[in-house]
Amino acid sequence: MIIAAKYLLLIVLLCSCSLGQRSTKDDQADIHYAKGSSELLNEEYTNALISLKRANELRSKDTKILNNLGMAYYFKNDLKTAKKHLQDAIDADSDNMDAKSNLAAIYMQEDNLAQAEKMYEEISLVLTYQYQFRILYNLGVIQLKKNNEDKALAFFKDSLKADSNYCSANYQLGLIYKKRKNFELALENFKAATKGSCYQYPAPHFAQALTLLEDGQYQMANEKFKHIINSFPQSEFAKAAKKNLQSFAMEIIPDNEDQLHSLELPPSALKQDLKHKRNTVTNTNSYSTPTF
After folding, report:
1. In 3D, which of 188, 284, 223, 209 has the Cα closest to residue 254?
2. Residue ranges per domain, the chain?
3. Confidence (pTM)
4. Pick from 148, 167, 248, 251: which is nearest to 207 by CA?
5. Nearest of 1, 85, 12 to residue 45 by alpha carbon
6. pLDDT digit string, tens, across residues 4-56
7. What is the maximal distance between C-alpha atoms in the chain?
8. How many other CB atoms are found less than 10 A from the CB of residue 89?
9. What is the dihedral of CA 56, 61, 65, 66, to 10 degrees?
10. Which of 92, 95, 133, 264 is least surrounded by Cβ atoms within 10 Å, i.e. has the fewest?
């Protein structure tokens, strides 16, 4: 499985409280923290960094401030400092699963699969963690990168058990079944990957069209390509769909496997939570991005 571009599932913590007696210093830290977190969500990364650094100066051991400060550095492309603050967040509170998930995602981006897998496995044991579906998905992607397709399949299925609406897990299952020529299951999963808010992403629609094409259902494939052109006219998928339709006109049936790996899949975050707002994906097989 080709994974050309790598993105994080970045988790912003939106509330913070300190134990014990409150002080003016604590109140000021909360103000800067709230301001910086809001600026992160609005993609105002320079301002967010300024605000969160001020919050950290006022309360240096606050695990939530440290997590978001790490994310601010990440979005400013300073991965070294981002990792330091995320590790500090974990050191301040070993139960901060969001910081662990963010740090694991950066390790994954750096292709440090062993370290990423170790951290994700630790988080997967915390059954109360609300984003288990993302953790299981990322473990599946790691297995794909290690060419362990059967293990990846199991993780993607487990991800859907944790959240049956998780589009990226359905998409990856579809890719595996398509590769195995199980077109019925491939289409079932690609269709599931277009339900609800996921409908806005063209990749699963395009994957359906290619699967129909490979399965010999040419008329349905033709209609699906037309749907992609009409619904996503500015996308690379629309361009690829037009080429496929031209091949139909010339009665040429193209080999479609490479097309799935040269175009982009929407990432896994997919705006399922207000804490995960910002999504950018640049590869059909990109892993779950902790994003806002």
Report:
1. 209
2. 173-267
3. 0.80
4. 167
5. 12
6. 333 444 555 555 444 455 679 999 999 999 999 999 999 999 999 999 999 99
7. 77
8. 27
9. 90
10. 95
